[in-house]
Amino acid sequence: MDASLLLVLKIAASACIGLLIGLEREWAHKDAGIRSFALTALLGTLSWLVTPALVYAEVAIVLLIMLLINVYAFLKEQNLEITTSIALAVTNVLGITIGMGNFLLAFTCALIITALLSWKTELITFSGKLTIEEIRGTLLLGFITAVIYPLLPDHPIDPWNLVNPRTIWLTIIIVSGLNFINYVLLRVFGTRGIRYSAILGGLVNSAATAVLLGQETTNDVSQEADAPTNILLADMAMILRNWVLVMLFALPRGLKPALPTLLILIPMMLAAGGLALLLILRMNIKSTKPSQKPALKSPLDLRSVLIFGLLFLALTVISGLAKRIFGAIGFLAVIVIGALASAASSSVLVGQQIQKGQVGDLPAAIAIFLATVAGLLENIVIYWVITRKPALGWRLVFYTLPIIFIGIAILVLTLLFHWA
Question: How is the chain split into domains, by residue range?
Fold first, then answer.
């Protein structure tokens, strides 16, 4: 590129970055606005272009300006302009970065800075809703991802080649991260209605959601009419979560080995959602009553992470040994039993077995079907035990059976097509 053209581009880019950040500060009615930020960015760029040694002097000037801004605010008995001062200093550094020719870094940082400044209210509101357990959970996720994961060996450590510490730990990271995202959504939207709680709670823990729905019905008899709908929504969310987890861990090997598994889960999920929609349309009533949030703990507290990790490790070892000793029957038994404790762990295990090629596509499809059925029936039993209403429990069985029958039909068709 021609040297003159490059010089013009640097000056223009520096001015654009200053104008972008300064526009937000001007909109926020700060003393340092569009002109101040544009000039600060240009000062950094020009200093570097003249001579890098000049940067030391101009940085000192920017620091003096920051000091004067805060002294002025102090004398006027206003809040100190800490955020504006830092933004001004960063804008100056971005101007230097443009002078060095790193356009991508400068523009990326400028956009992030502008977003952080303009989302002040949203960020403060969001942080105000966080609990200390959730903050600690976020730190824990960062620790297990950035510190522990790189230290683990990336090879099997047992005589049967079943336990790869890094693979198991990566599974814990992914599942914990997904659960935490669902949990945050539930914390934000859970008070808008019991149906939101049913869906989002089903994504996190369908069994705990069944407990909540049972308690809602016990405390408010009017919720009985909505009970089948809410349980079906939680079931739909659980099946969706199982589908996502199988996809996530099986797809590195390709879609074909996971296809029978996915063909079973998708119709079952659609059946649950379709039945819930029919019930909603038949009632023709919008539930506006806010519900309590499901009594779910943050999935990123140390105890939850360790319990899931130990459960998944146990399922990995036991299912591997059962498969070696008893064949596919042993593997299926472990998956079903594991689903009663954690459907997510069974789904992940099925996906990993598909990805490693250690289980065929049909046994994997049967395994995820049985695990899903175990979860569906477990939700009914939990709800029935809490409410102690046999008539309502039989209604839930009546609405759940079509979901199971559709899964059986798809499974039989898959087997017939395979044998043909």
Answer: 3-124, 137-419
